[in-house]
Design a protein that fits this description.
- With 150 residues, the chain is an alpha+beta fold.
- Helix content is 28%, strand content 33%.
- It has two domains: 79 residues, no CATH class; 63 residues, Archaeosine Trna-guanine Transglycosylase, Chain: A, domain 4 (Roll), CATH 2.30.130.
- The chain is built from five helices and nine strands.
- Strand 1 and strand 2 form a beta hairpin.
- The radius of gyration is 16 Å and the shape is elongated.
Length: 150
């Protein structure tokens, strides 16, 4: 299981970047691996097994990417609805452009880093990466279907 310092790093990042309060993950254990973190819902059975050496468990939630912590698409799709900042609400035309070209010019009042991508009606799609006035797609290509763009 992730130590208190590691858990606090994740919770602080979520709050500072996305406005996701730490209470959102109160019901989850956080496990740290070499390249990232996994979450798993709390239960007595899981608590009893925490003394075992486990290589992977639960949902991969974050990866270590250089100096950044990168939330996974699945994590953001599950918990992004709790975000209050670091969100880019886009329309269908912007989504189509982002998928086809891979980036779109935008002017966000944010430091460089990951951004929650939301479509009309607050449908959380996944992540983008914002840098120098450009939003780059971080949406997995294998999950994007042409039917989404029609």
């Amino acid at each position: 299981m992730a130590g208190n310092e590691s858990r606090q790093t994740i919770l602080t990042y979520l709050l500072e970047r996305f406005g996701i309060p730490s209470e959102v993950l109160d019901g989850y254990y956080l496990f740290e691996g070499k390249k990232g973190w996994f979450i798993l819902g709390k239960s007595e059975q899981v608590k009893d097994g925490t003394r075992l050496k486990v290589s992977k468990v639960g949902l991969r939630a974050f990866r270590k990417v250089g100096h950044f912590i990168k939330p996974t698409t699945r994590f953001i799709q599950a918990f992004g609805r709790h975000a209050t900042k670091g969100i880019f609400h886009m329309d269908l035309l912007q989504l189509k452009t982002l998928i086809r070209i891979g980036e779109i010019p935008v002017d966000l009042a944010l430091e460089k880093g990951y951004v929650v991508l939301s479509l009309e009606d607050n449908v959380i799609l996944g992540l983008g990466f914002y840098i120098h006035g450009t939003l780059r797609s971080q949406l997995p290509r294998n999950q994007i279907r042409e039917s989404m763009l029609e």
